[in-house]
Design goal:
By secondary structure, this protein is of the alpha+beta class. The protein is built from 11 helices and 20 strands.
Length: 408
């Protein structure tokens, strides 16, 4: 199965064009070409993370090349005018947000990667009095993500309370009709056997578990700060340490222009440090209060989880970003202002298929490039046929049945 990750709007510079003396002249009526496949990037960390052998990587590139051939036949871009096409692929990180609890270990999922389509405008520019021609530079790229059911599968917007801990939860994509015969969910188009089986509900208990993990992390960080301060304060008050430092200070003072003044300043500095630490660690001190607040926040989650009935624990969670408190933000009934939460359905993939096979194709960035006025794609001599316009033409005219036929 293939997955198209369509991150439209990500501008990439593949070549550096220096225009001197005049603005580039875009040749919107000039015939372009499909350039040779630029290859597959599969860095070592991605190979290791996905347990991808050289044979698997080669087979995965073959899947991308099959998609490349389907795209080359799309009537909207098969004979490019005003732009030339460059395409390439990549083996991507399967755990871009860290390895979440419940996520299969390396080798337990199909290979994840992307196929990239770039329609680069054809233009002329002047350099040193010579008119040169180019068909590379900057454009709006279109990414087709393959098998990438990560947190990026969700709708834009994050659950702030989840913090930075590793998790795979996201705002559930909601169906918004179709575009060019492809189901649209939020800001992406999905080609799969059954798009809505790509995710499963995130239960309220699972949501609280992520919250607890985030708050445990905060407690640990603040406890570390308190422990460090406590250790330093104990050191400053230790008689043996003080005696050793006094001996060292006396030796150092002997080399100073004013030994007495030096010893006084050192003593004052240590007293200031000791007083500051004492204040921080007192019940009203900032460090102590921050730790106490973090513990109360964690207890708020764990006590709530303990109160839940089995039915509430198993119910799908929704997130109301503007909720007045934690229980108002996380509910079990989706409503206006409370978006249902989900996580990847790792069981979706057909384990009998080769790991290199494409099983899901995502076309992302719909609103960025395909569904908005293309202001970034305009030129001095009129709209460019490159970038977003070519991307849209590709999605509109690509043979969806040919793609579906390859999906396992």
């Amino acid at each position: 199965m293939m997955r198209l990750s369509f991150t439209l709007g990500a501008a990439i510079t593949l070549g550096c064009v220096v225009a001197a003396a005049q603005y580039p002249k875009y040749l919107v009526d000039s015939p372009g070409v499909w350039k040779p496949w630029k290859g597959l990037t599969a860095i070592q960390s991605a190979r290791k993370e996905q347990a991808a052998t050289p044979a698997l990587v080669k087979a995965f590139e073959a899947e991308l090349l099959a998609l490349n051939e389907i795209a080359k036949r799309a009537p909207g871009v098969a004979a490019p005018i005003g732009f030339s096409v460059e395409t390439w692929g990549s083996l991507d990180n399967s755990t871009p947000y860290g390895h979440a609890p419940g996520q299969p270990a390396p080798g337990g999922l199909p290979l994840m990667g992307s196929w990239t389509f770039g329609a680069f405008p054809i233009f002329e520019y002047e350099r040193g009095g010579t008119i040169l021609r180019s068909d590379t530079g900057e454009t709006q790229l279109q990414y087709f993500a393959i098998n990438q059911i990560t947190r990026d599968l969700g709708e834009p917007g994050k659950v702030t309370e989840f913090g930075q801990v590793d998790h795979d939860a996201f705002r559930q994509p909601l169906r918004q009709g179709e575009f060019a015969g492809i189901p649209r969910y939020g800001d992406q188009l999905i080609i799969a056997r059954d798009p809505e089986k790509l995710w499963v509900p995130l239960t309220l208990r699972a949501a609280l578990d992520i919250l607890a993990l985030a708050r445990e992390t905060t407690v640990a960080e603040r406890q570390e700060t308190v422990d460090r301060m406590t250790t330093r304060l104990a050191t400053l008050r230790d008689p043996a340490w003080r005696a050793a430092r006094a001996k060292e200070d006396q030796a150092t003072a002997g080399n100073m222009p004013n030994p007495g003044q030096f010893l006084t300043q050192v003593a004052e500095a240590r007293k200031i440090e000791e007083d500051a630490l004492t204040k921080e660690l007192s019940p009203t001190g900032e460090a102590a209060r921050a730790l106490a607040e973090a513990r109360r926040a964690l207890d708020e989650v764990t006590s709530w989880a303990a109160e839940l009935s089995p039915a509430d624990q198993a119910a799908q969670a929704c997130y109301a970003e503007k909720g007045a408190n934690l229980r108002a933000k996380f509910r079990t009934v989706a409503s206006a202002g409370c978006h249902p939460l989900a996580r990847p359905n790792y069981g979706y993939f057909d384990k009998s298929a080769p790991r290199s096979a494409a099983q899901v194709v995502l076309i992302r960035g719909f609103d960025r490039c395909l569904n908005t006025a293309d202001q970034s794609n305009r030129q001095a001599n009129g709209p460019s046929p490159a970038g977003c316009r070519a991307n849209r033409a590709l999605v509109e005219t690509i043979d969806k049945d040919a793609i579906r036929a390859r999906i396992r």
